Amino acid sequence: MEKVRFGIIGYGNMGSGHAKHFHEGQIKNGILTAICDINPVKIAAAKEIFGDSVKYFDAPEALFASGVCDAVMICTPHYLHPTLAMAAQDAGLHCIVEKPAGVYTLQVKEMIEHAKKSDKILGIMFNQRTNPAFRKMREMVQNGSIGKVKRTNWIITDWYRTQEYYDSGSWRATWKGEGGGVLYNQAPHQLDLFQWIVGMMPSKLHAFCHFGKWHDIEVEDDVTCYVEYPNGATGVFITTTADAPGTNRFEITGSKGTLIYENNKLYFKELEIDEREYCFATYTGFQKPPCRPTVEVPLEGENSQHVGIVNNVANAILGLEPLYAPAEDGLCGVELANAMHLSTWLGRDVTLPIDDNLFYEELKKRIAISKPHRPVDDSKISTQ
Questions:
Q1: CA angle 95, 315, 82 (to 5 degrees)
Q2: pTM surpassing 0.85?
Q3: Candidate CATH numbers 3.40.30.10, 3.40.50.300, 3.40.50.720, 3.40.50.620; the one for domain 4-127+304-326
Q4: Which residues contact 119 (CB under 8 A, 6 or more apart)?
Q5: Could you give phi then psi for residue 32, rounded to 5 degrees?
Q6: Mean pLDDT over residues 35-39, rounded?
């Protein structure tokens, strides 16, 4: 094929945004040929933009059987991501799944195993991996520039949301409709980067998730989590949708210095001598190891975000490059979010990998008593 024919399932905030990128010609090796949404209001809105240039469907199964696509982008509520991805691959289609990969590890693992048996591409929309700052951060951690990782600290609190945001969909911020709050809707990218940059998953964590602390919702809108890593390092992950103006600052401290990401810039405070060597070799009790002047790390490449991931998947389908974020990578962030919920629900430390079945049983208890938001105007309903 010369270009990959894409269909979009779920024409809400994210789906319509992806469609716009095709419309603007930003996807070099892909074209948009189909849009699917169960809401006729959304389909009508799409027709005003795309007219007869694409086919329209009110059910994913109809799109899968149509033959008008080579690949689909799944932009539906979270629970449907694995189910639709597996159905798409069964229909012979490649797939991009919006974040998160799913709500609970059992369903994500099923999707990953399903993908391994298929010859079709399955990528995850981890668009923050295209950010040159995060790519450079990962490179410097992995190549030993900061020495042995000792501490991580990410405060990501610039996700401010009002009550109107949560009331914009009857499924939003409910256990039954969305499966979680800030950890599953706003922060999946940071949960992915938290382990991708460091190069290892925590081995244990203790989280304090506050459910409906700042908004009239069922799920978490405020989280503080302490983590421990296999190499002895420790860390903290803090997020909320209630702080204004909020902060987005990620620090990784190693034995040779500290990396700091803030305001989309990367800084390095480099020690002249490894702290572990200095600690046991110096004859002074209070003097810190000498540190070079803080430098802003030069960044290279384009911050292509969603467009970059879609182009990457199209190129991978055509055999031109490997995936930035394959299906297997979708599990880590979901497992971290699940572990934070489980730790809060049980009131104790949780080791990773988590007990998948225990988490699912606890989640089902919340789903059983979950209630939708008040009825809303259909025109406000979105998929992200």
A1: 15
A2: yes
A3: 3.40.50.720
A4: none
A5: -90, 125
A6: 97
